[in-house]
Amino acid sequence: MHDLVFDIAVCTMTAWVLAVAAQAIGQPVILAYLIGGFAIGPAGLKLVSSQESIATISELGLIFLLFMIGLEIDLRKIIRSGRVIVVAAVAQIAGCCVLGILFFRFMGLPIGGGHWDALYLGVAVALSSTVIIVKVLYDKRELDTLPGRVTLGVLVLQDLFVILFLAIQPSLNDLRAEVLVVSVLRVGVLVASALLISRFVLPVLFFRIARLPELVLVGALAWCLANGQLAEELHLSREMGALVAGVSLSTFPYALDVAAKVTSLRDFFVTLFFVGVGMTIPVPSADVLAFAGAIVAFVIASRAITVIPTLYVLRQGLRASMLPAINLAQLSEFSLVLLQIGVAAGHVGGIAKTATSISFVALAALSTFAMGRSDAIVRGSIAVLKRLGARDLDGSAPEEVAHTGHGARIMLLGFFRTASSLVAELEARQSAFLNDVAVVDFNPVVHRGLTERGIKVAYGDISQPETLIHAGVRNAEVLICTVPDFLLKGVTNERLVRQLRTLNPTAKILAPAELMSDVDALYEAGADYVTVSRLTEAKHLCEILEAIEDDLLSSKRDVLTSSLEGRREVLA
Question: What burial class does residue 524 get, using C-beta atoms within 10 Å of its C-beta: 0-12 exposed, 13-18 middle, 19+ buried?
């Protein structure tokens, strides 16, 4: 016991020091945990060498990691996923799995006879890192963009796929129809029991202890471990039970509260798990490094092969087809989890797990770099693809650029929430201005939605002067920039206003400002009027405060509710 406490202390201190360093250089902390585990493990400084301690640390971390992953799987989002997301996810997951199994079989890895390296690796390379993707997209404020939503939708369905794989994983060595049926029945019993208890029993218990945070935490952990033990009794894995325990609580009335209270403990055990994985990595040989390099190359190529053509066929445009492929081009934390489970079950050899761990580290670094520069990568790639004859939603090919000069009086450059509300407001007022409006944007959802409403729209990137010229900005009387700086790619509103003023010296140009210092800069660039939405919102909030003071809040709410009835926005 003394050795285990000492080992956990060493793991925690090492992880913390290296995680601080990783944050300073902009790398995922998971990389720090893996490197820290390698450094203090048997292949490194040998500060932790007890195989029993390493196994205990890894198993505890794995159980709680899967519990938290389950808590974050929103079944309602899976049910509500749109056709584009579902088709893209199925193509990516199934395509990468099949290609992966074929690729690893070609490399000589076994599949069958008690050895399932090619199958586990095929599944592992189909999964992408939720932690890395969400963090980078959040920092870039791209979670709510179309490529961001597609990426997150694929991640959610990947989680569902893993649950299905874990259901059959214990029976891989005896894959007969009756065995599979029994396995499915066991999973059904586990899932049904968990859902029924979380639906009818846990709400009552948690309601009674809701005011005692420590009991909420202990109750959540007790549920996780109890479900894990139930899975063990059903000849499934404790990890599967922990995952189902989390999923069963994801729609629980107290799910947010439980997740908030378990998060700190989750972070601790996640740290232990990845440090534990790092400790199991031996010093890589040349063969292992070559194997890891092959995995890295396969993951990048397979994302491009399965994601880009699928979204392109679904008419999402070149840009929205390529960005999710870049976003998804890494391995998931779950990939390491699967290989760990496979090794524990005797299904996978150590070389596969070691190579996967090294690939995870390499892809995490490469993916973080690529996602940070995805806009430049996509612009360059689109130019090459068009020279090769590819057509975008604007119908343009290398020598056939679409001249969409609408001659519209009013042009909306970019289309986000403000522009969506403006169009809806003009529709509600039945304004004659609506006939004079044209939009330029590269979001395929916007292009389709506006076309269905009979509003002129040109598909294109407003940061490119050629797009502005072909869209007809030289003939417009009013040019409205509608996208805030933090969402613009390759340009700022100040630079855009300067371009517009050069192209059309006489038009009235309206532009948004986020900071007070931006207002003067936009006027100097040539804007005729600058909108500062924070001021309008502040005035509205003052009116709400006055309504509260006069006990008129309900009437204000009724007015708002009435104004929203029947309102159909392109970006709802």
Answer: exposed
